[in-house]
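Consider what follows.

. . .
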Amino acid sequence: MTVKQFEMISIKELNFSYPKKPSLCEGLNLQLEEGKVIGLLGMNGAGKSTLMRLMAGLLKPVSGEVNFGIYPTFDRAVPFLNQMIFVPEKVSVPEFLSVKEYVGVYKDFYEGFDLDKLENLLVEFKIVGDQRISNLSFGQQKKLQIAIGLSTGAKLMLFDEPTNGLDIPSKSTFRKVLSGSLQEDQTMVISTHQVKDIENLVDQVIVLDEGMIKLHADLAELENEFVFSQAAKAPEGAIYVESHLLGAQYIARQFESVGDLGGSPDLELLFNAVIAGKLTGEFLSTQNQVTS
């Protein structure tokens, strides 16, 4: 089996709903490339966790396909499971084990597990290997799961709300360890509604709202096409404006903000603009929008 079979996840015409509940996904299409860190953004209840679980093969589509290479994810084939790690928002770990014993379960399953990386990450997160998991706080248990996930060597990493339950120093450590942990052939999807926690970490952003993908774009392309800035007054023709006491934050096309190069995309401002319907795929140049 070659690595080429693990390069992306492909979702085609996906429909999903829970029994006796409104549909969460209708005709959803999405392709994720290898070597990307992707921020999956959405408000609570938008369907982020459901989409992550469909990618992980924990839920079965009502119709349509969710594939990892040649493998339908819900089939849970061993070659797929060996190349995928899912870290849920609410961790559930066997408290009777020590950290070292728990790590051993993953080390034996993932053929690419990097024990040296794991030990370094545990040091960063201030977790001792001979501690019993029952003695770890919820935040420490979550950091343990994050450290294990980053050490598996899996080609597809799915982290659902990884910073929930972490204090401010731990969030800073999370950003630090994540920025230096991924290889070129790995893809990570980070689901969150706390967009500031993943700023400067992601290469692409997906905005999910009411089970629909409202935007899927490369941040580098967004930066080339738009200005994300603030001023005493937003320029004429700005696509989206948020007023505040000191002036306004805004998104405008580059050619409408002469002399203002702005900065890297502000994810919170971008998210708000998309949810408000002010910035969607139709605003992007054809070559700049990621196929979805």
Remarks:
- The longest strand covers residues 9-16.
- The two ends are 27 Å apart (CA to CA).
- The helical segments are 48-56, 78-81, 99-109, 115-124, 138-151, 168-179, 219-225, 267-275.
